[in-house]
Amino acid sequence: MNKNINPIKNEQGSVLVIALVILVLLTLMGISVTTTSDIDIQIAKNEQEYVNEFYVADSAWRHAIQWLDGIASAPALTNQALFISGATGDPNFLSIRNFGNATGPVYVNNVQSVIPDGTLGGGSSQINYWYRITYLDELSMEGTIAPLFGEEFRRYSFIITSVAREAGNPTAGAQVVTVTVTRVLQSGE
Question: What is the pTM of this model?
Fold first, then answer.
């Protein structure tokens, strides 16, 4: 007796097709997981660089505070000769200290440009930092009376802008920390 085989009802080789479909799905899932983990690694690396630069910028303003602690009288302006027109709207007009010679958010004073940037770390992970100290406003250059300290002492307000940037990556955004500080100093009167 001769059997008619219906090709539609023939199930031979269906296991092979199902196995291939499952294999393709597992391959796509593996590629997806690999891509996701690569992206997560890059995110973690960027976050680590951001945190490192932020803490270096945070320590730079503390470096500026140490400089302010080391002076007994109100500091003079360092950039007077650079602003002959008296354009007081320029934030550099009231500058009293520029640490470092980097370009960017902090103005470079020719007198101070011989001082190198502060650095933390070394090699490709080196982070440069610098800071600028300015009077908060023109009136604070004369200070306000500090009665508890005596007539020759006055209260001065300063803005400290500190910046940190990874040395090996000049195109990356710098971390900037701005702090307002008030100090009581001898007025020089």
Answer: 0.67
